[in-house]
Specification:
It contains four helices and no strands. It is mainly α and about 110 residues long. It starts with a helix and ends in a 16-residue tail after the last helix.
Amino acid sequence: MIRTLAAMEWKRLFRSPLGWAVLAAAQLGQGLVFVQLVQAYQRNPAAAAHNGATYQIASLALASSAYIALLAIPIISMPLISEERIWCCIATAEEPVDLGGRPATTQP
């Protein structure tokens, strides 16, 4: 049941162009950060010799990806939250859902 719900949510995330546009903007932002870090690494060879490429480029690029994800994930998931409120209102007026062979129980 969890796999079914996860597959359904995954499909609903990218059914609209908004999800794809946000992911494209996040990739563009991550790419620009990476290019800036590489250029800063090439401009300052003294710091590059001291810290190395792993710290100067890779770790800072991964740290910036966390901030980009903090912006992108809520934007992608906002339509799902509003759809759940609509479906919740519809579902309460209907019969309970079958839970994989077990009888659905209703609360009085």
